[in-house]
Specification:
With about 500 residues, the chain is α+β, with helices and mostly antiparallel strands. Helix content is about 35%, strand content about 25%. The chain is globular and about 65 Å long.
């Protein structure tokens, strides 16, 4: 039996998981850390916190692995998946010049609006596959260059380095020797040419990033150097995969062939469809990026980004105190038969695909004296399936066919009401794998593949034969009612 260490570096914490080559979780640990929210939509994290949280998570996971009678030398490789679009800048000594600018940060709204007025939107989308939106790294890099001129002047001297979180982690885990990223992370920056699979100098110049050092781009399953993870391992092990978390979850759930699609329901939600070797230019508000890659194969993807998913529940829990946890949320929502005309638009950080209304604010509509907390909570739970339906419908238009099934992962899959809404709105099978750590699992599988332990065929069979729960339309009632409420929600969205 061989094992892979998988690092799942997320927005709210860093998770380390050790998988066997048969897909079993042997040990895991999560280390949370702080995300700082400021006025005007600024969202940042400390670069040092990310490094220390990863090392703490790895340390505790390896400790448990050994305590259970396992041999640390049987951990033969590591893989990294990470929160995408978040980035930072550092100098030639490896010292941060900025905080980590998180994907949720909205500081560049005015930059996007100005660039749209100047007519750059179509050009940017054609080259990068992405929308001109604050969600992606490039617009916030431009904000830094416009507002902190010292950094821009320093970049002209060739001494400023750009990196998404995978690159920052790798750089530090290899004692500042390796400066690389993978195609999935590169494809989320607005600097990447999706057709040429390389950095695009014209795009870099548009975002005042023409003087930045950018990392070498590699495949998702590739050799990235060795690390002993701060002395945790007696000798360094190879890091054999790096990939964005949503793309990693897609791979881990078996969306390996053309037309397969998954929805990750985390803080936000990424709905990703594999389109194979062909890039699809969406006409329905989706973005194009890389789905996953090896040294000799690159699969493209269509993606719909839903900005607020689990964060909606977190807001009700932390800010309003209406619920204690996810189970309590579901229990309260199902205590009433309907939301009684109450709608929630979860635009806490704007609305993503297919609406792309990033300056919109969250709102609750339709409250009367008869409205209770249960009605509002149910409306909140309904808001994600309604958004997901719009994304899937847009994808189906782009590929001109209906999806056969949807793979789902994340905390909201534990909500029976959510799964009912999704299944009936999409009118298809919704499959939830028993493997709950899809992102970490995908990174581990890609690392095993680079190590020669598993072939792609063996990986597909392992995923196919794993235990899963299938939700079918006939399992639930009230489909027509759910569809009617969804239509009213969409009509409200477009009319306000």
């Amino acid at each position: 039996m061989k094992y892979a260490l998988s690092i799942d570096q997320g927005t709210s914490g860093s998770k380390a998981i050790i998988f066997s080559n048969t897909g079993k979780i042997i040990a895991k640990h999560t280390t949370p850390y702080k995300c700082n929210f400021f006025n005007e939509g600024f969202v940042e994290q400390k670069p040092e916190d990310i490094i220390s949280s990863v090392l703490e998570a790895v340390k505790e996971t390896v400790k448990d692995f050994i305590a259970n009678g396992n041999d640390i030398t049987d951990i033969i490789c590591a893989g990294i998946d990470n929160q995408r679009e978040s980035f930072l800048l550092w100098d030639e000594k490896g010292s941060p010049l900025s905080q980590v600018v998180v994907w949720q940060c909205k500081r560049s709204i005015s930059i996007c609006e100005q660039m749209k007025k100047e007519g750059y939107e179509d050009f940017i989308r054609d080259r990068s596959g992405l929308m001109l939106d604050p969600y992606f790294s490039g617009t916030k890099v431009k904000w830094i260059m416009d507002n902190i001129p010292d950094i821009y002047e320093q970049s002209k001297k060739g001494s400023v380095y750009f990196g998404t979180i995978d690159t920052w982690l790798l750089f530090n885990l290899t004692q500042k020797k390796v400066y690389k990223t993978d195609r999935t992370n590169a494809s989320r920056t607005l600097f990447f040419n999706l057709d040429k699979l390389d950095w695009d100098k014209d795009l870099q110049k548009l975002f005042k990033a023409e003087y930045l050092n950018l990392p070498e781009i590699c495949a998702s399953s590739d050799y990235y150097g060795n690390s002993d993870f701060g002395g945790i391992f007696p000798k360094p092990i190879p890091i054999n995969s790096m990939i964005g978390d949503s793309h990693s979850a897609s791979f881990g759930e078996g969306c390996i062939s053309t037309g397969t699609v998954k929805a990750t329901m985390g803080t936000g939600s990424s709905v990703l469809m594999n389109t194979g070797s062909k890039r699809i230019r969406s006409k329905s508000g989706m973005v194009s990026s890389i789905c996953w890659s090896t040294k000799d194969r690159t699969d493209y993807g269509l993606e719909g980004v839903i900005v607020s998913c689990g964060s909606t529940i977190t807001w009700f829990q932390n800010q309003l105190g209406l619920v204690k946890d996810g189970k309590d949320f579901d229990r309260l929502a199902t205590s009433v038969l309907s939301s009684e005309g109450v709608f929630l638009v979860p635009a806490f950080s704007g609305l993503g695909a297919p609406f792309w209304q990033m300056s919109r604010k969250a709102e609750i509509h339709g409250i009367t004296f008869g409205t209770t907390a249960a009605h509002i909570v149910r409306a909140a739970l309904e808001s994600y399936p309604f958004q997901l339906k719009e994304v899937i419908s847009s994808m189906e238009k782009d590929i001109d066919q209906k999806i056969k099934w949807l793979k789902a992962d994340g905390g909201l899959t534990n909500s029976k009401l959510t799964m009912q809404y999704i299944t009936q709105l999409l009118d298809t099978e919704v499959i939830v794998d028993e493997q709950k750590e899809a992102s970490a699992y995908g990174a581990a599988l890609l690392a095993f593949m680079e190590s020669g332990i598993l072939s792609l065929e063996e990986i597909e069979n392992q995923i196919k034969n794993s235990n899963h729960e299938t939700h079918k339309t006939q399992d639930y009632e009230h489909a027509e009612y759910i569809k009617s409420v969804h239509k009213k929600w969409v009509d409200f969205l477009h009319s306000n």
